[in-house]
Design goal:
The protein is α/β, with parallel strands linked by helices. Helices cover about 20% and strands about 35% of the residues. It has two domains: about 5-85, Elongation Factor Tu (Ef-tu), domain 3 (Beta Barrel); about 95-255, 3-Layer(aba) Sandwich (Rossmann fold), CATH 3.40.50. It has helices at about 65-70, 105-115, 135-140, 160-170, 180-195, 225, 235; strands at about 5-20, 20-25, 35-40, 45-50, 55, 60-65, 80-85, 95-100, 120-125, 145-150, 155, 175-180, 200, 220, 220-225, 230, 245, 255. Strand 1 and strand 2 (about 20-25) form a beta hairpin. The chain is globular.
Length: about 260
C-alpha cells in the first residue's frame, strides 16, 4: 500500500476513553512507525489526519473537537472506516526515553512505548482528571508514570513540562519524545536544550492532502506532513512559528 491508496476496514471495537475521546479498533494489521499518521475519510466530511495508537490491530483514538471528529461519534462496531497511509516520518528510538504526552498526544506516544523496546518513563498531562486517557496502558509500559493535571485533580498539580523536569532530575535518559499542545512542546524543547538532552516532537498542523503538495501544514519552510510530523527539538526551535503561529484552512498564518 502507498500513502495515496485508500483502504477500508471494519470497526471491530469501540471504546470510550473519556467524555471527549473514543478508541476505534479495526480488523486490520498495519505496518507503521511510531509517529506516523493516517488520513481518515468520512463521506461528506472529507479527510483528517489521525495518529496511530497501535498497529496489531490498527487502533485509533480520536478526540472529538470538530465537525469531522464529532461525526465519528456515530461510528459503531461493524461500520466501515476508510483511510490512507501510513504517512510522514516517525520517531527514532534510544535505549531509555522519557515520553511526554499532553491531551490526545497519548496516541502516538502509546505506539512508541509499545514498539521501542526501550526503558520508558512517562508523563501524562491534562487539564483535569476527566480528560486523562491511556493511564492504565502507560502504567504497564512505563518504569515510572507521572500524571500531571493543571488543577491538581489527579497526580502532580502542574503542567506536563514541570512534571517532565522532575523526572529528568530523577532519571538519566537518552531521549525525550513528546506529542501534545505546541506551546507545551516548545517549553519542553527549551528545557531539553537547557539540560542538553536530545528531544523529538510530533507536531500537528492543518493538513489537507497529507502528501506535501498543498502547503497548508507549513512550519516555516518545512511541510509537517512530509518532512515531519516528527522533528528534533533543534529543528522545531529554529522556526519562529513554532509555539507561536499556525496556518488556517486557507494557509494564512494565525496566532496559536
Amino acid at each position: 500500500m502507498t500513502e495515496y491508496s485508500m483502504l477500508t476496514a471494519r470497526i471491530a471495537k469501540v471504546q470510550k476513553e473519556n467524555y471527549r475521546m473514543t478508541t476505534y479498533e479495526l480488523d486490520y494489521k498495519l505496518e507503521a512507525e511510531p509517529g506516523q499518521f493516517l488520513m481518515l475519510w468520512l463521506p461528506g466530511k472529507g479527510e483528517k489526519p489521525m495518529g496511530i495508537a497501535d498497529t496489531e490491530p490498527l487502533t485509533l483514538s480520536v478526540a472529538h473537537v470538530g465537525d469531522f471528529t464529532e461525526e465519528m461519534r456515530n461510528l459503531k462496531e461493524g461500520d466501515l472506516l476508510s483511510f490512507r497511509g501510513p504517512m510522514g516520518n516517525g520517531f527514532k528510538t534510544k535505549k531509555s526515553m522519557l515520553l511526554v504526552a499532553g491531551g490526545s498526544g497519548v496516541v502516538p506516544m502509546h505506539l512508541l512505548a509499545k514498539k521501542s523496546g526501550a526503558r520508558i518513563f512517562t508523563v501524562l498531562g491534562a487539564r483535569n482528571k476527566d480528560e486523562l486517557a491511556y493511564e492504565k496502558r502507560f502504567k504497564k509500559l512505563s518504569e515510572e508514570l507521572l500524571v500531571a493535571t493543571d488543577d491538581g485533580s489527579k497526580g502532580f498539580k502542574g503542567n506536563a513540562v514541570e512534571a517532565a523536569k522532575k523526572l529528568l532530575e530523577k532519571h538519566a535518559v537518552d531521549l525525550v519524545c513528546s506529542c501534545g499542545p505546541e506551546r507545551m512542546m516548545k517549553a519542553l524543547a527549551e528545557l531539553c536544550k537547557k539540560k542538553n538532552v536530545p528531544c523529538q516532537l510530533s507536531l500537528e498542523r492543518y493538513m489537507k492532502c497529507g502528501t506535501g503538495i498543498c502547503g497548508s501544514c507549513m512550519l516555516g519552510d518545512k511541510r509537517v506532513c512530509k518532512d515531519g510530523p516528527v522533528f528534533t527539538g533543534e529543528e522545531a526551535l529554529s522556526s519562529k512559528e513554532f509555539g507561536n503561529m499556525k496556518r488556517d484552512a486557507s494557509g494564512r498564518p494565525v496566532r496559536l
